[in-house]
Amino acid sequence: MVMNEVKVEIVVPKSGLDYPLTYLLPERFIDFLQIGAPVLVTLKNRKTYGFITSVNSSCSLDVSNLKEILSIAKNSLFNQNHLNFYYWLSSYYHESISRVLDAALPSIDVKSFHLLDVYAEKNNKDSKECKKSSVSAYPISCLDNGESNTICKPDSFYINGGKNTPADNIKLTEDQLKAIELIKKPIKDNSYKTYLLHGVTASGKTEIYLNLLEYALILNKQVIIIVPEIYITNQFIDVMRKRFSKMLNPHEFAIFHSKIAKKEKLINWFKILSGEIKIVLGARSAIFSPLVKYGLIIVDEEHDSSYKQESDFLYNARDIAVMLANKNNSVAVLGSATPSLESYYNAKEAKKYEYISIKERVSGKFLPNIKIVDLKNEFKSNGSSNGSGINNNINFSDEMLSDFSKKEILTNIEQKRQVLLFLNRRGFSTFIICKTCGHQFICKNCAVSMVYHKGKNNEKSFLKCHYCNYTEEVPKLCPECLSDNIEPYGVGIQKLEDKVNELFGNTSKIARIDSDIGRNKKTGAEIFNKMNAGEIDILIGTQIVAKGHDFPNVGLVIVISADSLLNMPDFRSAEKTFQMLTQVSGRAGRGDMPGNVIFQTFNSSNYVIQYASKHDIEGFFEKELSLRREYLYPPYSKIIALRLIDKDFDKLQERAFFLKTIITKTIAINSEFKKISVLGPSPCPISKLNNYYRFQIIIKSPIVPKEKNISYMHNLIHIIKNEHGLNKFFAARKIVIDVDPDILI
To answer: pTM (2 decimals)?
Structure first.
């Protein structure tokens, strides 16, 4: 073969294909031939970009039948090590390699393809200038000089041109010191470890992160820090600006998330790949940063659902962090006040992770006092009754705040302390509840809440389990107390804001923050800055306020509906409720004064609410793990969800049952699959989305020690994907595979 007939394999991210394509590399490009090199090609008569994944294609096609590469960039975007991991992700998540690369790599504008070399050259230029003006890093003795209860005091620190002040001489607690010293060893030894850092809210986990980050930098290693939401990156930047000196210059730090401009992301990508950038901070997608000197990966609030991508490539950034550390002989730290049950199990029972517990807040601060307000009693004590003790003229959806809550708000405002009102957006108007006794309607087969379906066109309303498809009519009387006071349940944040303004608007400054407002970076930052400056008296928020915020003057947190998530039709509803309650409670009493929390609930005796009100996380874990073990839910099993979509309901239902038949037959004739069980098919709880009807089948396999449990399920999926009559639906994403789903809706 002559030089101008070199065949190369190209993966085209936007193609959706699960295999590389073979192209000819012209002789004029041979000097730039390398794994990960971006190329411009023609596919289906359109120009698009791809990446070289193999430099010696074994394609048997005659060169006359192959298209030529139109252009090639001089610098690659990944190396062989990164490519191997991309293929591992493709295999584990049963996703096409093209979609993996589409999610993992920066998007390239075809019209500006020629600018890739400009960006790479800018990286080289910046790197040279950086070396001329760089300052020396601290010697290792700075952290190991016998004064391990203090940190090095920097003179100045700047990121993106910011000017910074020296950090205070911070005294570390004994628990913090032990955690830092324990984790430092594998970082120094280049050995793999995953640590679950389980510390109560305000226990100083961030300070541990910063000490470990500093140590990794001293060893000239790269670090990834991922946080649940984009807006939290700003908090970390502020902390690091106040903290470090002489260890970073503006070209050694990068922020990665979906809002970063393409140009900036590409330039920083080259800097990371060259080893110049030492710290990458960002949301979920930052986990794909192409480090070359892996040292430390930190996953803050590791339990958070936002680490799971719920569209396109369905990966979990937390799990990827662990696997990256494992495959690169580095350290992963998973931090949370409320660890996921999977991580807790992996640390405490499976012993896959090292467990570090910090049970006290820093500076002797106390956890907040939590008061449960039973809304059933609120209805009984207000206004006239119908003889059953229930006032039919007062509805929770109208009032939303109990009398006790209103009094506590006034008390805090008078004391010049701030109030945080939390309303969970999920779980509303999807279930029914007995407003007399608080009874919840649970599926008799699956131990999850049943979804309320309002009847249309004179049809009867009904309850349905979206796991096993069990259905029953909405009862006229509560099976527990025989009351007829059964109603759909739910409120909205804007309605709550109107109510709070009506009650306190004349005397208090009130603001609202939710995901819609939070998407506007400027508006969201302004609200949080005003909260920190004491310019807001009452802040009303959704999940966005429960994640990582430190408002020292918050004296009162009120959870408007503590039991809302309990009614989600998902086996994780109890876990997510406990995490939500504990996290939002942790916003109270973080300053010098103690804080108080109010849980408003219709179900005050529920074990989740009781454990959360007592800060008893071990008790909750023990209870919840026993239930998971009984019903063989994760972490005692592995789950893969198969979601089917179609605009034609009848075709979709027929296909779902055909898929179930194929799965059942395949399991029956293969002994290795004998422990796998199948639930469904059933309509998803969200049964129609974007004009597509949705069904799902859940495949479950118990975790058996010393057995390759997940490999059996992967083998089954591989067989099903290639089944005649089904493979085209998998290829067209009419059947989507979700490995380790976070929520089954």
So the answer is: 0.84
Structure tokens at 268: 């920083």
Helix or strand or coil: residue 188? Answer: helix
Q: What is the DSSP string of 616-639?
A: -HHHHHHHHHHHHHHHT-TTSEEE
| Residue 445 and residue 587 in contact, taking contact as beta carbons nearer than 8 Å | no
Q: How many CA atoms within 13 Å lie on the side-chain side of 310? A: 7
Closest by Cα among 62, 65, 56 to 9: 56
Q: What are phi and psi of 77, to 5 degrees?
A: -105, -5
Distances (CA, A) of 55 to 22, 120, 267, 290, 651: 10, 22, 25, 20, 44
H or E stretch at 98: helix 97-104
pLDDT in tens, 227-241: 988 767 777 777 777
Label each residue of 572-619 as H, E or C: CHHHHHHHHHHHHHCCCCCCCCCCEEEEEECCCCCHHHHHHHCCCHHH
Q: What values do phi and psi take at 2, rounded to 5? A: -80, 165
Give dist(CA 95, CA 97) in Å, integer: 6
Alpha-carbon span 494 to 508, nearest angstrom: 17
- How crowded is residue 10: how many other Cβ atoms within 10 Å of its Cβ? 25
pLDDT < 70 regions, the chain: 1-5, 57-59, 122-169, 231, 245-248, 250, 379-398, 425-431, 446-448, 454, 456-457, 466-467, 488-492, 494, 515-523, 548, 706-709
β-strands 510-513, 538-541: how paired?
Answer: parallel
- Provide the 3-class DSSP secondary structure of residue 394: coil
> What's the rounded Cα separation, in Å, for the pair 340 and 601?
24
For 383, list phi and psi in degrees, rounded to 5.
70, -165
Bridge partners of residue 382, in order along the sequence: none
**Distance in angstroms (rounded) separating the CA atoms of residues 210 and 152:** 11
Whose CA is closest to 337, among 227, 208, 197?
Answer: 197
Which amino acid appears at position 56 of this protein?
N
Could you read off the pLDDT of 104-139 as tens digits, one per residue? 999 999 999 999 998 887 666 655 555 544 433 333
Instruction: Locate 168 and state its tokens.
Output: 């205070």
- Rama region for 477: left / alpha / beta (φ>0; ψ in -120 to 50; rest): beta
Degrees, nearest 5: CA angle 213-219-224: 40
- The 3-state secondary structure of 261-302 reads CHHHHHHHHHHHHCCCCCEEEECHHHHHCCCCCEEEEEEECC
Q: Are 225 and 280 in contact (CB under 8 A)?
A: yes
HSE, side-chain direction, 13 A CA sphere, residue 543: 18
To which residue do tokens 């109107």 refer? 498
Residue 546's pLDDT is what? 75
The DSSP code sequence of 439-493 is -B-B-TTTSSBPEEE---TTPPPEEE-TTT--EEEPPSS-TTT----EEE----H
Helical ranges in 670-732 per DSSP H: 709-721, 727-731
What pLDDT score does 438 carry? 82
The strand pairing partners of 198, in sequence order, are 336, 357
Beta bridge partners of 358: 199
DSSP label of 57: -
